[in-house]
Structure formats: structure tokens, C-alpha cells
């Protein structure tokens, strides 16, 4: 049910953002901008070794009281992290080291001083004696029986190993075409421009612990802090101010959060820790680090049959609460058939502990890896068969008539037209023109290549899906509290956390649509456990589906009550009432929304007999099917590659995508473009290599390359709109999609550039060295021709 | 501690600073001017870009004491600046910000570009922005905003007698 | 990521700067634009007790051009050169190089003197100055001296600069007419330090030619065989072999990729020059 008339037009409008002004004038309030009188800064003493026993920590005598080790912050309970599966091994992760350090950057002690510089001075004076242990660095070697162990009590280094067997994988052994590749996405950081941060103090007036936290979801973090610190939840208030990007990296409870909150309970002043960039690259949640050893199987006619092999996820030294990194393996396995009619799977997936920073979620979670592996393999099959890779995709992709389609691994692809997305991308990138250009050659000696990659992006998944993933906290719904004030303007409280997604605008558009008012009359609030309804936060491309649905539902309940009051005041039947442009219209008269709001809030005498006052509604929402809806699209990219230097330049980038109904197309395009920039980072630039001793080799932006404006082209975005059937308004989440396909599309493009010599590009980032070495290898294999 | 006098957003101010204090920390922690954000502290991200003696610079790469006697302008210092107003409008209209953390540095840099280069094209703007990281937008809309702000300023100037 | 504490003095004259450096017993460092030093301070990779700020010494900003040489003050910023605020009698070579250094905000305060004094093996100016046969003018309490940039740079972050010395400026010989140049630089992302940077110059008809390469070993170096090939107008393919000889002499850890990479930048620089 939606409001007729005045509400129309807000769904689908590219409304300019309500949240812009504060940032344009420098009035944003990020964690490091929060000023609390008397605050002292924390600098952490961190492990310089990948794996070691902590023999001794010597505090400088003059400032011993300012140095906190684990014993000084007790009691702090460690919560078991990872999926709720008995097979998943527990990796107890203390806020400060408990006698063992398992990665370079792990927190050992916290130094508290009036300024961060002084805290770092103090940290430099804390002497830590470490006794080095053999480090586990290579994810595949880590699974060998003779590997050193990250956890002594584990039988091997696997957090969990699982198998996916679907269809009849015995058939795969005799397939006419079997292409084996080893593929790898290297380790990277999430690199929100604002690092993590936490500021905590005991509020003596309200008798509660206040924790300002740069987080994507404060309610769940409060739950964790309350359990860990042994405080009742009503005595812990988590406030998330403006968040300078998250991308998944700010959605786990981290040792620094716990340590700072625990220290705040021990000292008489506020304490804060603001992550610096080196700490971010060392010890914020790391991402990707997938290794695939796969064989894809096909018929001679190009029919894809299935995939078999192993997946290794290098999950680092600890599982992060709540869910650990298991979903990387489980989602990668389940997404490995992509949009294709492939029915046979035999996959063994290992989530492996190593002496590296713990892995967390990052935009795209698992699917950039799965899509890279699958779409590279599809290209390699095409090459094997002498086919145009695009045609092989088109031949095997599920058609619109076949949707909804349950994939071999059990994902129910819902609505859309995958072939149309492929064709649109092909048309816009102009494949024939590129093929002609390749024949002509480039005057500068570079090679041109074109690559395609198809992706799907699950969103709106709730209880059923997260039960499958064995989550400890099931984000099965989202909530909204919609409140109309006496003057007819509206405050909305939600449990999701806006950190760039534009919720203040899009959720207002939804409420405006339902309430028949202007979005300018609506404020959307979030980020404070003291005022918002319970919710899980912003991640997994879920906000527009869940929070949008909850806002819609709560607004409709409010609209219904408004109509009833309007009918009473206009002395007519509710069925005859409509809301339009802030007015309530009856058959023979109208009344302003503000008058109804005033009556409901401040003049109960004017309400129908027996009606409760107030215009306020709390709603929770979950789509009618909680397996999720699937946005999808095709990325097509043209590159120019210098074979000698190995430098790759992106010449053109096209996306055809379908995320169902777009609440705000401007914001959709912004998400797509921004996601692709991050995907380009994964594909070409970003990497944290580790040496054999487990030392990370990219700990500043001098070594960790983040793409800037010259590296990221303006993407030509094309939309197909197929509304979802199981969500409000037909929306599908789309926040992650942009980041999923670029590694696959770009690697396919680079491979296309060198298809004449059969060079293979199976590892990201495609750094100049990797590209040049792959070209050289292929040239040598063909007899040293240059 | 050293005595530091700077012309900060048009007003002469005097503080005691440690020599090691960067201009960024000085602005944020002592002057409480928090529009200047800190993103890397080693000169690679541009979030802390401010104007010193008329030139855009990274406030993490300048010690506060080095600015003694100089003028320093932060985003807070441009409430009514004509170029900044046009830039703000185009950043808003082009959807050139998402989380907003890079925005103050981007605006300062964009103003610096438009002061030096009349009506730059997209290619030029991209090169000029090579030291400003935005992790959200993918840059396209930022580039658009600056290009169109340049055009708008040019036509404003043309309209003047 | 905050600097360790240090003391700070602002030098008012060159004499005062060098005297302070000579007399102060502490571990002193010179700061000019600070664009390389301050990050190292913030990372606590540089731990001076004292910073001597030479950034306001007008004597180090003076620039003049004679028939024979361009004299560039050490405090001339990359942006000054990029914008043509100082003469570039090398047909735009200096402007091109300056505009490609790091980011514009860094170029606003980063100085040519600071760049050479730091002697980062991947830095731009040392390569150009090497190719142009420039000399550094250096002041100390004992007086001043001049030394070719080639001799001045000793290795990775190592120069002949004594603790009490500062660079005053550079003398770059101005070539005769018909100077041509080419440059090529590979970076991992825009504004990053070079993975490889090559500068080639020639003038007249084989009178003079030089080729210099940076980011290939501990210090930038001249490529003598390549230069000879340029003077003798060797065709591209012959030149490639000469480049190979020079690179062999550099012993790039037996890394074939580095050989391909540097060969590619040198050859691109040559192509650019020959197309001028």
C-alpha cells in the first residue's frame, strides 16, 4: 500500500544528498574530532615479530602506571568468534597479548599519556622481550602436516575445512575439456580514509560507560563490549559519529576497542585511540588472500560442466568476533558457479590460520575471489576451445526464462535478465571495434585487451541465509522508529549506520513517499545506542533492503493512523481519505498534516475516542524470502599494456547492472563507480606482501598503492531495472557489486591482450612486475620469440 | 616549547607549540579546527591539505613552527569565499562526496587548482588530484565537480563588466 | 605516528646555519621544505635532536642564468620550476621533470636542494642533474665548495655532505643550440617514487650526449655506453644492445624484470628525444 498523489516521485528521484552540507563546510564530526575534556591518548606497543612468546614486558619506572598490559585491564572476557560450528576451532584473541603474539602488529601493551606523541614516546620506552617461534606464512604450506602451528593445541592450522559436493562430480574426471589453474588474490587492507578509532569514559552523571566508536554497527558492538567487560547493556552506550568510510573494516570488535574501553574503567579520565595509517595497514582487518587450485570442466561444444579443486583462505592469526573469516570460504564455494548452468561441484575449502593480521570482511566479501577464479577460468576454457570468451559466457549463462534458478550450490538467483546485461556491456564497449583495433596494433608498442566479467551480488539475505552461515548474531531484520512531531515534521531513527551510503537521503525519500511529505521535512538519525532502535548496522549491501523496508513499513503504519485521525476530523470514512503534499484530503474538505500531528501529540481531546495519542511507529523488516535477492551485472574493460614495463592502463570501463528499483539513481551510480575504484585497487595496485619471517612489507602508502584519480576512469554505467519480487519497492542491495568484478574483468582484459602468446594472468594485483613476468614466461614457452 | 604566531583564517593567533608538532596536529588539537582531517601522516593521502602562504600544502608534512609568521587557511576559513562557494555547490550537485572524510582536503586542493589553472579539463584535474585519496567515490564525480566549477567561474567572470 | 621530540632553530643566514650545524653537539638535521623529512620524522625513521630550518634563507633562493650556466638556488621549489617561475634553458626539460614529482601540494614546498641532499635512489632531480652534468655548490663554516652531482651522491641516501654543510645551489651548464631531450618514468601509481626513470639529452651533431637512469640500484647513474651510442647516432636496435651493456654493468641482482623495465624506460626516453 502506498500513498497516492503527493508521495509519488520520491522513489527513483536523484535527490541531492542531505548529508553533504556538513562535510562541505568542515562540520563533520568524525571520531578524532570528538572533543571530551581531559582526554588522554593511547599508543599501543605492538609485536614486531610474527610469532613469539612474550617473555617479559618492562614498564619504564617513571610512567609504570601509564602502561597497561593484559593483567592491568582485567577482567575482560574473551568471546568465542567464528561460526557456531563445533568443527570451527577457537582462537582466543585477547585485547592485549597473553604471553604469545601471533602476528606483527598484535597489541601487547597500551600506553596512556596526555598526547599521542607522548604516548608514543612512552611506548618506545617499553621493553618487550620476545622469544621467536617459527612463523606460518604460506597458506598452502600451512596445511602440510610438518607445518609449525599457530595454535599449539590444534591438530593442524585449519580453523575449519569444509567440502561442497553437488551434482555428480565423478563426471568431471572424464570431461572433454579440463583446464587447471592456480589463482590467487593477494592480501590487502580495507583502507577507509579515516582509520579506526575509539574514545571511552565513564559518565558519572548517567552512571554508564560511553564508548565513541568508529563502527558500522554500534548495537552489536555494545553487545560485545557488555559481555566482554561484564557490564549490563544499559550501562554501555556506544556512539558512532560520522564514519570516514568502513567497507567492512569497521564491523568487527577489535582488540583496541576492548582495551580502550577496559582502560576507561580503570582511570579517571577519558581515553582514546586513533588508528594511524601504519597501524591500519598492520593490524586493521585484512582482506582477500584467497588461493584457488581449480579445474574447470566443459564439453567440446563449450557447455560448462563444473569445477573441482581446493580453496585456501588465509584468515590470519585470529578469528574476529563475531563471525571470523569462515564466510570467505563458504561464500566463495557457493558462488563459484556464478550465473552459469554448471551442476557439478567438488570443492574443499580451507580457512587457514597463519601468522598474519586477522582477516575481516571487505566490500564484496569472498565474491571478488570467486568471480576472479571463475571468470578467469571461463576465459581460459574459451581460449582452449578457440572461442570468443564473451560467447562462451552467453552460451552458459542462465536465461531470463530460467529465472528464478537454483544454482548447483543452492543459491536462488531471483529476477533479471543476465543475457541482456551481457549483451548491453558488449554493445557499449563495442567488442568488434576493439578486435579491429587489436589487429591494427598500437603505435606505442603497447597491447590492447578487452575483458568481461559477470557477477551476482546477494543482498537482503536474512535469517535463513545467516543461519546457513552459522552466524553467532543473526542479522535477520532491521528496524526503524518513525516519529511525527507536533508540527508535522518527522524524525526517523534506524539501526543501520550511514557512512557515505546516503541513508539520510534515501531513507527520507522512502518515508516521504509513504507519508506524502517532502524529504526536507524528515531527519534520519542513527549511530547512538541510547536513542536508536536495535539493529545490526551497515554491511552486506543490506541497508536499502532492510532499513528501507523498515522505514517504509513504519511510515505506512503512521500514514494509516494519520488517515484515521483525518477521517475523524473531516467527519468522513477512512477509505475516502488520501494524503497528498502534506495535506489530508477528504471528499468535501482537507486538513493540514501539521494539524493532525499537533492533535496527535498535543491535543488528545481532538482524537477519535479510544485512540492512543502520538504519531510514532517502530517496525522491523525482513524480506518475505530471506535467502536474498541478487543484483547482477557485467563489467567490460579495455586495457593497454606495456609488455616490457608491465604497466597496465585502463582505457575504457563499462558496466551494465541491475539492482532492481533504484531509490536514488545518483547514489546508485556513486556506489558503482566507488566500488569499481576499490576493485581496480584489488586488480592492479593494492597488496600487503609478507616475507618468509612473516614481516609485512607494505606498512605505509609509500609501499601500499591506493589508486587515485589518474588511475580510475569514469565508468560508463548502464542500468537494467528488474524489480525484486520479495523486497519493498523491488529494491536490491548494490553497495558491494562494483568491487566484485574488476579483478576478473581486468585480468581477462590483460590476458586478452596477450592471447596470441597464451600468457596467463592469475594473480592480483596485476603489478607491472607480475604482468611483465607472465608475458616473458609465455614468450619463453613459445621459443624465446620477442 | 616554542612561541608560534600565525595568521590563521585571517586572525592573528599566538600559541606555544612543541617543535615536533605538525601543522595538522596544531590545527586540530590546539586550535580545535577539525575540518582538516588526518588520513596518513606521511603525505600520501591529501586529507589534511590546507593553504599556507597562499599555496595548498599537506599540513602533516609541515611542522607548525615552520609556519611562524605565515598565513594558514583551513576549510573553516572559507565560509564566504567565492571560488569555494562554487566548488561546494558543484560538489553537492555532482555527488562528489560520500563519507565526507576526504572532502575538506579535496575542496582546498580544488580551489588551488582553479586559482592556478583557468577552466581545466578533466584530464588535467585528474593529474592535479593525483595526491588526494578518496576511498568512496571513485573520483569521477569529484573530477566532474571541479571541471564544472571551473566552467561556472569562467562564465561568472565573463559576465562581469 | 608522531615524531619523537627535537629542538628547532630557524637559521637567519647561511653562516648562522652552518655555524649552528658545526657547533651544536647534538644530532642535527637540516630542514628546508620538509616534504621528505617530515614523513620520516612522523614515522620515527629520522630521530634528530635538533632541526635547523634553512627554509627562509633568501640566499638559497637566488637564481640566475648566464651564457654558460643556470644557477639554481637550493630552495627553489619543484612548483617554481614546473610553473616556469625560474628559467629553463633546457627546452622544457626541467619543467617536465618538476611537474612529474610527487603531488602538486608536495611540489609547492619541496625543494630541489632537499631532493638532492636526501639522495633517494628513485628521486627525479639527481637523474636530471646527472644527465646535465650539474654541480652542487656547498657551504660550510670553512667556506664553500663545488662538486659535480655525480661525485656528490655517494649511494642510497648517502652524499658527500659533511654534518656542517648545506647545499646552496646548483650550477647547470647550458648547452649550445639544438639541445634535445627525452624522459621516461614508470611509477606504480601517479605521484609515487619512480620504479625506473631515465633522462637522455644530446646537443649538436654528436657533440654531446648523456643518458642517466634512476631507481636502478643504490644511486642514479650515468650510462656511458648508451651515451656513446647516442653520440654516434646508433639506430634503435644497436642502441638497445648498448643499453644492455650499461645495465649489465649495473648488476641488477640478476633480475630479468628490472632489465626489461629499465631497458624500456631508456628506450622510450630515446624515442621521445629522437622524435623531437
Describe the 3D structure:
The complex is a heterotrimer of chains A (786), B (161) and C (276). The N terminus of chain A is likely disordered. By secondary structure, chain A is of the alpha+beta class. The longest helix of chain A has 27 residues. Chain B has two domains: 74 residues, Ubiquitin-like (UB roll); 78 residues, [2Fe-2S]-binding domain (DNA polymerase, domain 1), CATH 1.10.150. Chain C has three domains: 46 residues, 2-Layer Sandwich (Uridine Diphospho-n-acetylenolpyruvylglucosamine Reductase, domain 2), CATH 3.30.43; 110 residues, Uridine Diphospho-n-acetylenolpyruvylglucosamine Reductase, domain 3 (2-Layer Sandwich), CATH 3.30.465; 94 residues, CO dehydrogenase flavoprotein, C-terminal domain (Enolase-like, domain 1), CATH 3.30.390.50. Chain C has eleven helices and 14 strands. In chain C, helix 10 crosses helix 11. Chain C starts with 6 loop residues before the first strand and ends with a helix. Chains in contact: A-B, A-C, B-C.
SSE topology sketch:
The complex is a heterotrimer of chains A (786), B (161) and C (276).
Chain A: H1 20-24, E1 40-46, E2 52-58, E3 67-68, H2 70-73, E4 100-101, E5 107-113, H3 116-125, E6 127-132, E7 158-166, E8 177-189, E9 197-203, E10 208-213, H4 218-229, E11 236-239, H5 255-264, E12 271-274, H6 277-283, E13 286-298, E14 304-314, H7 326-334, E15 344-352, H8 367-385, H9 389-396, E16 405-406, E17 412-413, H10 418-429, H11 431-440, E18 447-459, H12 463-468, E19 478-484, E20 490-494, H13 503-515, E21 522-525, H14 543-569, E22 578-580, E23 583-586, E24 589-592, H15 593-602, E25 615-621, E26 629-641, E27 648-658, H16 665-685, E28 716-719, H17 737-740, H18 742-753, E29 763-764, H19 768-781
Helix pairs in contact in A: 7-8, 8-9, 8-18, 13-14, 14-15, 16-18
Chain B: E1 2-8, E2 11-17, H1 23-30, E3 49-52, E4 55-58, E5 71-73, H2 82-93, H3 103-116, H4 122-128, H5 140-159
Chain C: E1 7-10, H1 14-23, E2 28-31, H2 37-42, E3 50-53, E4 64-65, E5 69-73, H3 78-82, H4 93-99, H5 104-109, H6 112-118, H7 124-131, E6 135-140, E7 143-148, H8 149-152, E8 153-155, E9 158-159, E10 166-173, E11 179-187, E12 194-203, E13 208-214, E14 221-222, H9 224-231, H10 236-250, H11 256-274
Parallel strand pairs in C: 1-3, 2-3
Antiparallel strand pairs in C: 4-5, 5-10, 6-7, 6-10, 8-9, 11-12, 12-13, 13-14
Amino acid at each position: 500500500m502506498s500513498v497516492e498523489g503527493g508521495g509519488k516521485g520520491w522513489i527513483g528521484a536523484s535527490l541531492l544528498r542531505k548529508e553533504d552540507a556538513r562535510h562541505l563546510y568542515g562540520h563533520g564530526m568524525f571520531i578524532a574530532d570528538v572533543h571530551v575534556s581531559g582526554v588522554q591518548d593511547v599508543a599501543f606497543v605492538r609485536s614486531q615479530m610474527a610469532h613469539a612468546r612474550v617473555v617479559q614486558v618492562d614498564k619504564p619506572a617513571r610512567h609504570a602506571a601509564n602502561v597497561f598490559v593484559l593483567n592491568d585491564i582485567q577482567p575482560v572476557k574473551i568471546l568465542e568468534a567464528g561460526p557456531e560450528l563445533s568443527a570451527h576451532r577457537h582462537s582466543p584473541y585477547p585485547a592485549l597479548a597473553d604471553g604469545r603474539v601471533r602476528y606483527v602488529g598484535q597489541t601487547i601493551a597500551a600506553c596512556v599519556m596526555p598526547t599521542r606523541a607522548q604516548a608514543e614516546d612512552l611506548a618506545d620506552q617499553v621493553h618487550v622481550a620476545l622469544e621467536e617461534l617459527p612463523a606460518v606464512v604460506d597458506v598452502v604450506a600451512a596445511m602440510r602436516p610438518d607445518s609449525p602451528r599457530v595454535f599449539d593445541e590444534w591438530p593442524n592450522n585449519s580453523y575449519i575445512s569444509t567440502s561442497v559436493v553437488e551434482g555428480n562430480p565423478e563426471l568431471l574426471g572424464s570431461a572433454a575439456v579440463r583446464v587447471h589453474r592456480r589463482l590467487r588474490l593477494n592480501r590487502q587492507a580495507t583502507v577507509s580514509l579515516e582509520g579506526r578509532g575509539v574514545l571511552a569514559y565513564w559518565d558519572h552523571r548517567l552512571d554508564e560507560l560511553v564508548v565513541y566508536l568508529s563502527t558500522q554497527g554500534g548495537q552489536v558492538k555494545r553487545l560485545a563490549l557488555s559481555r566482554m567487560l561484564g557490564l549490563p547493556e544499559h550501562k554501555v552506550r556506544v556512539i558512532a559519529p560520522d564514519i570516514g568510510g568502513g567497507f567492512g573494516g569497521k564491523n568487527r570488535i577489535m582488540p583496541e576497542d576492548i582495551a580502550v574501553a577496559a582502560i576507561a574503567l580503570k582511570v579517571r579520565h577519558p581515553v582514546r585511540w586513533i588508528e594511524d595509517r601504519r597501524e591500519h595497514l598492520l593490524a586493521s582487518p585484512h582482506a582477500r588472500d584467497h588461493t584457488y587450485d581449480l579445474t574447470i570442466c566443459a564439453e567440446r561444444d563449450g557447455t560448462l560442466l563444473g569445477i573441482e579443486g581446493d580453496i585456501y583462505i588465509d584468515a590470519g592469526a585470529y578469528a574476529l568476533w563475531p563471525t571470523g573469516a569462515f564466510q570467505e570460504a563458504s561464500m566463495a564455494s557457493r558462488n563459484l558457479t556464478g550465473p552459469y548452468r554448471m551442476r557439478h561441484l567438488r570443492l574443499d575449502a580451507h580457512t587457514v590460520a597463519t601468522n598474519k593480521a586477522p582477516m575481516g570482511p571487505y566490500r564484496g566479501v569472498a565474491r571478488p575471489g570467486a568471480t576472479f577464479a571463475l571468470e578467469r577460468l571461463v576465459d581460459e576454457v574459451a581460449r582452449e576451445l578457440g572461442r570468443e570468451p564473451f560467447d562462451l559466457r552467453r552460451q552458459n549463462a542462465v536465461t531470463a526464462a530460467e529465472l528464478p534458478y537454483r544454482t548447483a550450490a543452492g543459491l536462488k538467483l531471483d529476477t533479471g535478465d543476465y543475457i541482456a546485461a551481457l549483451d548491453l556491456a558488449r554493445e557499449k564497449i563495442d567488442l568488434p571495434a576493439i578486435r579491429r583495433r587489436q589487429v591494427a596494433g598500437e603505435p606505442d608498442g603497447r597491447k590492447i585487451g578487452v575483458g568481461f566479467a559477470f557477477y551476482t551480488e546477494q543482498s537482503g539475505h536474512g535469517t535463513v541465509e545467516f543461519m546457513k552461515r552459522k552466524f553467532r548474531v543473526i542479522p535477520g531484520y532491521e528496524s526503524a522508529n518513525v516519529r511525527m512531531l507536533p508540527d508535522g515534521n518527522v524524525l526517523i531513527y534506524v539501526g543501520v549506520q550511514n557512512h557515505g551510503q546516503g541513508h539520510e537521503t534515501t531513507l527520507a525519500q522512502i518515508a516521504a513517499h509513504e507519508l506524502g511529505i517532502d524529504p526536507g521535512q524528515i531527519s534520519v538519525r542513527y549511530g547512538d545506542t541510547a536513542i536508536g532502535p536495535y539493529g545490526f548496522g551497515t554491511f552486506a549491501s543490506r541497508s536499502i533492503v532492510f532499513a528501507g523496508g523498515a522505514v517504509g513499513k513504519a511510515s505506512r503504519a503512521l500514514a494509516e493512523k494519520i488517515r484515521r485521525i483525518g477521517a475523524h476530523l473531516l467527519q468522513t470514512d477512512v477509505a475516502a481519505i488520501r494524503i497528498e503534499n502534506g495535506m489530508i484530503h477528504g471528499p468535501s474538505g482537507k486538513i493540514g498534516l501539521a494539524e493532525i500531528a499537533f492533535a496527535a501529540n498535543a491535543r488528545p481531546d481532538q482524537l477519535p475516542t479510544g485512540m492512543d495519542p502520538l504519531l510514532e511507529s517502530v517496525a522491523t523488516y525482513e524480506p518475505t524470502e530471506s535467502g536474498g535477492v541478487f543484483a547482477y551485472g557485467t563489467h567490460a574493460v579495455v586495457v593497454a599494456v606495456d609488455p616490457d614495463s608491465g604497466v597496465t592502463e585502463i582505457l575504457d570501463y563499462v558496466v551494465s547492472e541491475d539492482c532492481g528499483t533504484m531509490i536514488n539513481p545518483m547514489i546508485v551510480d556513486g556506489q558503482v563507480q566507488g566500488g569499481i575504484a576499490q576493485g581496480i585497487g584489488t586488480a592492479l595496485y593494492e597488496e600487503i606482501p609478507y616475507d618468509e619471517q612473516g614481516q609485512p612489507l607494505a606498512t605505509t602508502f609509500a609501499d601500499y598503492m591506493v589508486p587515485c584519480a589518474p588511475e580510475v576512469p569514469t565508468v560508463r554505467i548502464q542500468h537494467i531495472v528488474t524489480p525484486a519480487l520479495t523486497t519493498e519497492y523491488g529494491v536490491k542491495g548494490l553497495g558491494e557489486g562494483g568491487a566484485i568484478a574488476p579483478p576478473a574483468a581486468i585480468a581477462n582484459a590483460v590476458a586478452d591482450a596477450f592471447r596470441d602468446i597464451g600468457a596467463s594472468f592469475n594473480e592480483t594485483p596485476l603489478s607491472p612486475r607480475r604482468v611483465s613476468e607472465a608475458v616473458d614466461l609465455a614468450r619463453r614457452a613459445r621459443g624465446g620469440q620477442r | 616549547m616554542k612561541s608560534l604566531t600565525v595568521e590563521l583564517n585571517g586572525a592573528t593567533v599566538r600559541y606555544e607549540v612543541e617543535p615536533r608538532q605538525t601543522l595538522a596536529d596544531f590545527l586540530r588539537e590546539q586550535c580545535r579546527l577539525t575540518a582538516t582531517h588526518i588520513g596518513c601522516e606521511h603525505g600520501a593521502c591529501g586529507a589534511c591539505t590546507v593553504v599556507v602562504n597562499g599555496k595548498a600544502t599537506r599540513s602533516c608534512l609541515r611542522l607548525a613552527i615552520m609556519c611562524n609568521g605565515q598565513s594558514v587557511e583551513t576549510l573553516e576559513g572559507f565560509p564566504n569565499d567565492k571560488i569555494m562557494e562554487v566548488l561546494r555547490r558543484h560538489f553537492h550537485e555532482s555527488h562528489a562526496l560520500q563519507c565526507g572524510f576526504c572532502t575538506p582536503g579535496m575542496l582546498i586542493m580544488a580551489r588551488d587548482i582553479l586559482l592556478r589553472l583557468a577552466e581545466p579539463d578533466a584530464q588535467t584535474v585528474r593529474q592535479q588530484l593525483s595526491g588526494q585519496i578518496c576511498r568512496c567515490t571513485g573520483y569521477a564525480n569529484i573530477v566532474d565537480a571541479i571541471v564544472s566549477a571551473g566552467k561556472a567561474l569562467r562564465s561568472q567572470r565573463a559576465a562581469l563588466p | 605516528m608522531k615524531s619523537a621530540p627535537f629542538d628547532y632553530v630557524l637559521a637567519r643566514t647561511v653562516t648562522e646555519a652552518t655555524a649552528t650545524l658545526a657547533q651544536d653537539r647534538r644530532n642535527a638535521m637540516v630542514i628546508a621544505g620538509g616534504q621528505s623529512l617530515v614523513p620520516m620524522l612522523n614515522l620515527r625513521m629520522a630521530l634528530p635532536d635538533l632541526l635547523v630550518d634553512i627554509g627562509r634563507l633568501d640566499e638559497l633562493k637566488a637564481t640566475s642564468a648566464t651564457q654558460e650556466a643556470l644557477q639554481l638556488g637550493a630552495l627553489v621549489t619543484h612548483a617554481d620550476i614546473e610553473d616556469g617561475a625560474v628559467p629553463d634553458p633546457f627546452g622544457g626539460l626541467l619543467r617536465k621533470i618538476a611537474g612529474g614529482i610527487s603531488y602538486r601540494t608536495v611540489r609547492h614546498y619541496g625543494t630541489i636542494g632537499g631532493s638532492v641532499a636526501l639522495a633517494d635512489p628513485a628521486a627525479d632531480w639527481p637523474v636530471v642533474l646527472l644527465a646535465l652534468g650539474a654541480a652542487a655548490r656547498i657551504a660550510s663554516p670553512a667556506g664553500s665548495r663545488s662538486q659535480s652531482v655525480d661525485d656528490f651522491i655517494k649511494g642510497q641516501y648517502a652524499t658527500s655532505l659533511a654534518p656542517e654543510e648545506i647545499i646552496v645551489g646548483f650550477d647547470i651548464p647550458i648547452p649550445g643550440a639544438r639541445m634535445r631531450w627525452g624522459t621516461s618514468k614508470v611509477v606504480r601509481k601517479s605521484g609515487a617514487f619512480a620504479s625506473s626513470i631515465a633522462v637522455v639529452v644530446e646537443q649538436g651533431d654528436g657533440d654531446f650526449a648523456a643518458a642517466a637512469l634512476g631507481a636502478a640500484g643504490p644511486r642514479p647513474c650515468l650510462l656511458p655506453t648508451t651515451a656513446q651510442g647516442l653520440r654516434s647516432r646508433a639506430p634503435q636496435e644497436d642502441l638497445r644492445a648498448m643499453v644492455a651493456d650499461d645495465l649489465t654493468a649495473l648488476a641488477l641482482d640478476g633480475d630479468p624484470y628490472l632489465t626489461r623495465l629499465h631497458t624500456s624506460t631508456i628506450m622510450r626516453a630515446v624515442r621521445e628525444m629522437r622524435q623531437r
